Amino acid sequence: MKFVQVIEFDTTHEEQIQSLLDKWRESTVGDRTATHTMLTRDHRRPQHYMAIIEFPSYEEAIRNSELPQTGDLAHRMAALCDGPPRFVDLDLVRDERF
Can you tell which superkingdom this protein's organism belongs to (predicted)? Predict the structure, then answer.
């Protein structure tokens, strides 16, 4: 079963966050287990973001979380956020594309 993690956070440092995400992507080629990511910004609250990450399974998400590069990313992102991020772990039960 596919697994989705949502990370909700507030920041005024979008460009720096984008740069960190780019570096993570480059440094985890061949190791990461994430298959799809999206970074979204709240239309009404422009400093509020949600990162949506898809994995083949919960176990693969755990493997991805254990990568040193992922830990480094999380640490650096937390320093750029206005308060702690909120994590939501979801089992994907229905996926339709139109």
Answer: Bacteria
What is the pLDDT tens value at each position of the chain, 98 positions in all?
999 999 999 999 999 999 999 999 999 999 999 999 999 999 999 999 999 999 999 999 999 999 999 999 999 999 999 999 999 999 999 999 99
Q: Which domain holds residue 72?
A: 3-91
Are 49 and 11 in contact, with CB atoms under 8 Å apart?
A: yes
Which domain CATH number covers 42? 3.30.70.100
98 domain residue, yes or no:
no
User: Is 96 within a domain?
Assistant: no
Could you give the strand order of the β-sheet that contains 3-10, starting from the edge strand earlier in sequence? 36-41, 48-55, 3-10, 86-91
Residue type (1 letter), 15: E
Residues near 12 by beta carbon (within 8 Å), at least 6 away in sequence: 47, 82
- Does this model's pTM top 0.90? My answer is yes
> Number of structural domains, the chain?
1
